[in-house]
Write a structure and sequence with these properties.
Strand content: 5-15%
Largest sheet: 2 strands, antiparallel
Shape: elongated
Oligomer: single chain
Strand order of the largest sheet: 1-2
Distance between the termini: 46 Å
Number of helices: 8
Helix content: over 70%
Radius of gyration: 21 Å
Number of strands: 2
């Protein structure tokens, strides 16, 4: 779709911006157009991913845990390491680990370097399920961006990466204060 054609189409965020401009004419709405669309797209992505992973009796969070373990089969992944890789609280992670263990998809092994710690490993059943699910998961992602050209996908990925790195930098600076 050309830029001119895209400008003629309207979405929810266009209305949102117009409504705010009518109430607060001096309000700079450019950030709204970016952030509100990211939030909306996140919702659409979450729905599609949830429906797809439900076919495997997995939630997105459970899949994230298994994916880290499956991608790193030779690493000793502790809950703390896992927590940094998927950005979740320790309480939320404990629930995911427990559920995956109950399903026979994950096991806890003693951590040889920490008597109180554990190493998490995907079971053979967990690895097989993850490898099966990842193919359809990536297909969902492909479908979500299929309307963009390869160049547009690269540009969007680059812009999002830049935005994420800026937020990480700001978060790190604030945690040092």
């Amino acid at each position: 779709m050309t830029e001119a054609a895209n400008q003629k189409l309207r979405d929810f965020v266009d209305s949102l911006e117009e409504e705010w401009k009518a109430q607060v004419p001096a309000l700079p709405t450019e950030p709204i157009s970016v952030v509100a669309r990211l939030v909306r797209m996140s919702y659409y992505i979450e729905r599609r991913v949830a429906v797809n992973l439900a076919r495997y009796d997995l939630t997105r969070g459970e899949f994230e845990v298994l994916a880290v373990l499956t991608r790193n089969p030779n690493e000793d992944i502790t809950p703390k390491i896992l927590q940094t890789k998927i950005l979740i609280t320790s309480g939320g992670l404990s629930n995911r680990i427990r559920k995956l263990e109950e399903k026979g998809l994950l096991e806890r092994l003693p951590d040889p370097s920490d008597r109180r710690g554990v190493i998490l490993k995907a079971t053979e059943k967990g690895k097989a399920l993850t490898l099966e699910a990842v193919t359809s998961h990536v297909e969902v992602e492909r479908q979500l961006v299929a309307g963009l050209s390869q160049d547009e996908q690269k540009e969007l990925a680059s812009l999002l990466k830049h935005l994420i790195l800026l937020q990480q930098q700001e978060l790190n600076q604030n945690s040092l204060r």
